[in-house]
């Protein structure tokens, strides 16, 4: 059995694309080198999941988000999970991305609506509208 046929993704999109693509993978007498398998898996993962997960709300902010995501994923897997660092080393990149999103929320007229929703039902109150939470007192 080909090793590639056993690969599965947790996401529905990944699973659908994997099954279709793996059955079309050229092979010779069911032998595939591990290097080819790893390269194909990396490309498949990037195509099916990377682009979907890395898109930003504002297209102009996608490069900043990608930088942050790459930095965070590296820090999380290589340092945090191994107990080497508790401090997120990517905070500056997060701030850069957050500022970009803020600018585009304003440009698209979404920021005032978010501010109003937050004042009507603040996160600190569990998202419950203020009128409701005050009437329960």
Describe this structure in words.
With about 140 residues, this protein is mostly helical. The chain has two domains: about 1-55; about 55-135, no CATH class. The chain is built from six helices and no strands. Helix 1 (about 10-25) runs antiparallel to helix 2 and helix 3 (about 60-80) packs antiparallel against helix 4. It starts with 11 loop residues before the first helix and ends with a helix. Residues about 1-50 have low confidence and may be disordered.
Give the number of helices: 6
Write the H/E string, N to C. HHHHHH
Distance between the termini: 65 Å
Strand content: under 5%
Please give the largest β-sheet. Answer: none
Range of helix content: 55-70%
Work out the count of structural domains.
2
Gyration radius, in Å: 22 Å
Average pLDDT rating: 69
In terms of structural class, how would the helical and strand content be classed?
mainly alpha
What form results from the Cα inertia axes? flat
Count of DSSP strands: 0
Q: Report the uncertain regions.
A: 1-51
């Amino acid at each position: 059995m080909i090793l590639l046929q056993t690969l599965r993704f947790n996401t529905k999109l990944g699973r659908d694309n994997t099954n279709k693509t793996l059955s079309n993978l050229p092979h010779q007498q069911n032998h595939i080198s591990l290097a080819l398998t790893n390269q194909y898996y990396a490309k498949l993962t990037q195509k099916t999941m990377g682009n979907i997960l890395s898109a930003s709300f504002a297209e102009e902010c996608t490069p900043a988000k990608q930088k942050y995501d790459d930095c965070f994923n590296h820090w999380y897997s290589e340092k945090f999970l191994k107990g080497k660092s508790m401090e997120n080393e990517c905070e500056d990149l997060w701030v850069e991305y957050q500022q970009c999103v803020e600018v585009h929320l304003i440009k698209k007229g979404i920021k005032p609506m978010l501010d109003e929703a937050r004042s009507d039902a603040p996160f600190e109150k569990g998202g419950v509208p203020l009128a409701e939470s005050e009437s329960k007192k």
